[in-house]
Amino acid sequence: MPDRDQPRWARRALRVMRGLLYLFTALTCGFAMTLTPASVEGALGMTVTYGWGTVGLGSSLACLTGVVMNRYRLELAFVWFAAAAMSVYVVTVWWLVLRETTPTGAAFLTVGVLALAYRGFELQAYASKLRRLHYRVA
Q: What is the distance between the alpha carbons of residues 119 and 108, in angstroms, rounded to a whole number?
């Protein structure tokens, strides 16, 4: 596990935070599909909105499953899909914000995408470390 060198309390706290990150990503994608804002629907269309929403919902639930089951490779496989799906929504919201409203909501969404990307890079670095160790031993 990428955080196995951390103290026990830190590992638990990090798992809870990752679980919440994926849970709220899933909720955001689910709500975007069921309670689609008219502005987003007008900008993207329903097909694209349902497309990224489905990818985001499925991948964030897979990541949440990885956290709950303590399987970081499951997270690694799906975190980039969750980040990509949320990026579609964030870019659309920023585009609408720059045209119409204040940037508060878009800034909050951007923080979420950055957190997903951070976790993706963290998992990629750990996987790379494991590959280097494997090839050094073999």
A: 17
